[in-house]
Automatic annotation (TrEMBL):
It catalyses: tRNA(Trp) + L-tryptophan + ATP = L-tryptophyl-tRNA(Trp) + AMP + diphosphate + H(+). PANTHER family: TRYPTOPHAN--TRNA LIGASE, MITOCHONDRIAL (PTHR43766). The keyword Aminoacyl-tRNA synthetase applies. L-tryptophan binds at residue 137. The lineage of its organism: Bacteria, Bacillati, Bacillota, Clostridia, Eubacteriales. It comes from Clostridium manihotivorum. This is Tryptophan--tRNA ligase.
Length: 332
């Protein structure tokens, strides 16, 4: 491992099927980071259980997500790919950090406020402490940069505050991480309400495309995408539906909106939609094939997550020992 490379850490929860938003907005960009940075990409199963999970589904999705990382082009030899629960230091560091965090700052997290509102009187305590676990994830690896979407910037800010506080209370221990905003950060919006982010938890199935949706489903969902009555293909905020469709092509092909627009002079929404569907299919079909073949080779996958856990455990345990020592625990 090259010590001079900056460290990147990111993770996705295996709590639902991935949408093309997760793929184009996150995973596809991670692929570009692997040569320049020392990357840790985690399947955060400990985070996923802050909402009740069906055990069999959690198992399937955890392996599926790992297979998706690899199929998307994240090289398991260049990067550290691992499953969060395979590194016990995450849970332990989270406890230590919980004892250095305040109820007030956790209660201010907008994601907590939104999610807990829907839980009535049965708010899971882990949901409240979730950002502290996320801070542990990041801080255990001396992370310099964290690629996250807008919805996670508040959690990252909190991780920085907790790190700073620990450093001030004891002595310098943690690197203070920064957000990494990719140059062409693709934010994919709902196909039905294009001013809202595409989300797998949307009630309307037509509003999102799943990474593992078959071609006929992709064609159907794209053809039903909401546009507008203007009828001309433009890239403006007045036409958010059309803009979103153009963004999908841009994200897949690595093009600028102007370059895509050139192809639609004198053409209508039907052509644009058909191109979006076919562009998606040609990107996703080979990916889906690879995911299938990786999942069918259990030993290959096991080998990857075991090696990943070994590398991650080594680094995480070093940081954890430092934390324990500074707090005043007796070394064993
Ligand atoms: N909370 C993140 C999300 O839901 C997932 C996550 C957990 C994460 N730990 C992390 C992201 C550490 C970046 C770094 O999207």
């Amino acid at each position: 491992m090259d010590d001079k490379k900056k460290v990147i850490f990111s993770g996705i929860q295996p709590s639902g099927e991935l949408t093309i938003g997760n793929y184009l907005g996150a995973i596809k960009n991670w692929v570009k980071l692997q040569d320049q940075y020392d990357c840790f990409f985690c399947v955060v199963d400990l985070h996923a259980i802050t909402v009740r999970q069906v055990p069999a589904d959690l198992r399937r999705r955890t392996l599926e997500l790992l297979a998706i990382y690899i199929a998307a082009g994240i090289d398991p030899d260049k990067n550290t790919l691992f499953i969060q629960s395979h590194v016990p230091a995450h849970s332990e560091a989270a406890w230590l950090l919980n004892c250095n965090s305040y109820m007030g700052e956790l209660g201010r997290m907008t994601q907590y406020k939104d999610k807990s509102q829907k839980m009535g009187d049965s708010i899971i305590a882990g949901l409240f402490n979730y950002p502290v676990l996320m801070a542990a994830d990041i801080l255990l690896y001396n992370t310099d940069l964290v690629p996250v979407g807008k919805d996670q910037t508040q959690h990252l800010e909190l991780a920085r505050d907790i790190a700073q506080r620990f450093n001030n209370t004891y002595s310098p221990t943690f690197v203070i991480p920064e957000g990494y905003i990719p140059e062409e950060g693709a934010k994919i919006m709902s196909l039905q309400e294009p001013t809202k982010k595409m989300s797998k938890s949307d009630d309307n199935q037509n509003s999102f495309i799943l990474l593992l949706d078959p071609p006929e489903v992709i064609r159907k969902k794209v053809s039903r995408a909401v546009t507008d009555g203007i009828g001309v293909v433009n890239y403006t905020d007045e036409q958010p539906g059309v803009k979103n469709l153009i963004n999908i092509i841009c994200a897949i092909k690595g093009l600028k909106p102007e370059e895509v627009l050139e192809n639609y002079k004198g053409k209508g929404y039907a052509e644009l939609k058909s191109d979006v569907a076919e562009t998606l299919i040609s990107e996703l079909a080979p990916l889906q094939e690879k995911v299938k073949s990786i999942l069918s080779d259990k030993t290959y996958l096991e080998d990857i997550y075991r090696k990943g856990a070994d590398k991650a455990n080594y680094i995480a345990n070093k940081t954890l020992r430092k934390m324990q020592k500074k707090i005043g625990f007796i070394p064993r």
